[in-house]
Amino acid sequence: MLSPFANPAFGLLDPGQCEMIHNASLEILRRTGVRVHHPEALALLRQAGAAISDEDLVRLEPALVQWAVDRAPHNVTLCKQGSDEPLVRLEGRTVHFGPGSDCLYYLSPETGERRRFQTQDVIDCIRLVDALPELSFCMSMGIPADLELANPYRQQFAMMLEHTAKPIVFVCDDRKDCEAIVAMAAAVAGGADALRLNPTLLLYSEPSTPLRHTESAVGKLLCMAEAGLPVLHSPAPMMGGTAPMTVAGSIALGNAELLSGLVIHQLKRQGAPFVYGVQVNHMDMKTMVSVYGAPEYELGRVLSAQMGRYYGLPTWGNAGMTDSPALDEQAAIDATFSVQVALLTGTNLVHDIGYLEAGLTTSPELIVMTCEIIDMMRCFMAGVALDADALALDVIQQVGPGGDYLSSEHTLAHFRKFWQPALFSRQRREEWEQRGGKRFGQRLRERTAGLMQKPRPEHLIGSQRDEIAYILGQR
């Protein structure tokens, strides 16, 4: 039966080609192996029959990898803070967007100044994310230079708990950090069991390419598995630096790192939620920087999304970021390209909205601009209906040759379904000048400032704040 809808989609790999990459990764794990710098993880692997030599070099048989893949759940749900209301469902080809984490610099929308992040900047950015319906989750976005306290990641998480009710994707330093952050989330959720049943957070962790799982990264991985909470343990192979100078070779390497992390994770707790993501970029040999805004980067994103679906795992990616040091035309092009790829490939959880300089700087204006792009591209992704009402044969017959459709009931029923921009202008020159002649950048700056100043309702109660403060006071 033919579908009455036509929706855009994109991919590069057929099932046989996914299997080629999978088999290449299995060969890496069997022949080359991975270093695992964590005693508990080594004990779990040894008990499962993995071959361990040279103290911490682990080689894995394909059967053990397949065992782990088969036990990881096919979907992950993230809920509103303090609630069982699902806000993010990571499954199928659904796509959810959010910002990135831990930039050193902040591009002020008020002054245009690039400066070190301050605590109030982070709070303003969190409140901005909370106000934007196109963004489904929050990350910390910046490292405050004025935060002269121990455990900055815990402080950042507490800020997010205070200023948004959206799910939080967090980063942290080590297992102790992870335990404290989980405890704060549990305080808001109503306890550890309630948090596990209605998770409101997801850990973003990384192995160290090439083929190393550090003690701190594995400690966090095991902590989340033990708690039954979702985690992304995402490799970031850099072609020409820490990985082969080919997209396929880097995907095979990163996939091997991810699969070995998944084995450790599932050995700790079978069925614990795990998100798939391999971030392949390359070293620009002219500038020696790691590149975000490149066709090769987006090809890696396509392959990563397809490999995640091959394993039946929720997928993770990037969009709305740029290598440009300024909020300029290059940034707009990079953001548009990456958002379109994320939606066309159906990557489930997409972060880094608002990154300039490949993650050195967060721009609130780039966040707002990318949300306009997301809204536009979602309309494109909705595709075209092909049913009788959409084909409109009776309407065409009624209007006939030389008629008009402006007064048609069919037009009245459909025109509101067309996308309307919040920032883009459709005025002609004379009307645009009469209304002030504001260019896009000025309209963007004003909208960003208005959203950041918009009052947001408080959602934490006093006892929750007290418990969070107590946890923050621990070392």
The helix fraction, in percent, is: 40-55%
Distance between the termini: 62 Å
What is the CATH topology of the domain at 71-381 and 462-473?
TIM Barrel
Q: Kindly report the average pLDDT value.
A: 95
Beta-strand residue percentage: 5-15%
Radius of gyration: 24 Å
Question: For the record, what CATH class of the domain at 71-381 and 462-473 applies?
Answer: Alpha Beta
- Assembly type: single chain
Question: Would you mind describing this structure in some detail?
Answer:
There is one protein chain. This protein has a domain of 323 residues: TIM Barrel (Alpha-Beta Barrel). The chain is built from 18 helices and 22 strands. Strands 3-4-2-12 form a 4-stranded mixed sheet. Strands 9-8-21-20 form a 4-stranded mixed sheet. Strands 10-11-13-15 form a 4-stranded parallel sheet. The radius of gyration is 24 Å and the shape is globular.
